[in-house]
Amino acid sequence: MSEPLGLRERKKLRTRRALVEAALRLFGEQGYQETTIAEITAAADVSARTFFSYFGSKEDVLFFDHQERTDEALKLLADRRPDEPIRDVLLRLVEHGLRASLLPADMASELSSVRYRLVSSVPALRARGLRLLFETERRLAAALHETYPGELDRTEAAAVIGALSGAANLAVQVSMDRGEPPERAWEAGRRAAEIAMGGLAVLGRGTV
């Protein structure tokens, strides 16, 4: 069980949340390129110095929770029950990724949609998002193999993670492009992952 956060840590989280929400609202209202850091800090009622103590650039704001989400996914794998089937673990992994990316606990649903649209449409953000996704998939594939070394070799683990991630992400993209809310996109991503999982013969072997 994690220790409760102290006053200083809670204040830092509130400040980061205020900056992220202010930035996303401004990005949604007037555009990513058109929004300045000065406008973000004014909306969040903090100084530019405070902004740069949390983020190195506007771009960093869009990926503020990437490392936390990756760490949580890796912990999910590490903490799985000894007798838990790999299919159940993988589905929980997909659900975690979808919930974290579409419905962060400290962000309103409409702001999740803003973030998705920006990362999908702004070339520099799209490129960074793809780099981060690849790195996360690489780490998850390595962790999956280490968790189930007798069931999946490194290539099979990479194939499983790639297939589920690709299916879920594409389904989310199609859903969001149709203008559906994040909750519907989450459902589409989960269903796509289940479909992909059903087609993976490697998961039908033995006890996995």
Automatic annotation (TrEMBL):
Residues 36-55 bind DNA. The keyword DNA-binding applies. GO terms for molecular function: DNA binding. Residues 13-73 form the HTH tetR-type domain. PROSITE patterns: HTH_TETR_1, HTH_TETR_2. InterPro entries: DNA-bd_HTH_TetR-type_CS (IPR023772), Homeodomain-like_sf (IPR009057), HTH-type_Tx_Regulator (IPR050624), HTH_TetR (IPR001647). It comes from the Bacteria. Keywords: DNA-binding. Pfam families: TetR_N. Gene3D superfamilies: Tetracycline Repressor, domain 2. This is Transcriptional regulator, TetR family.
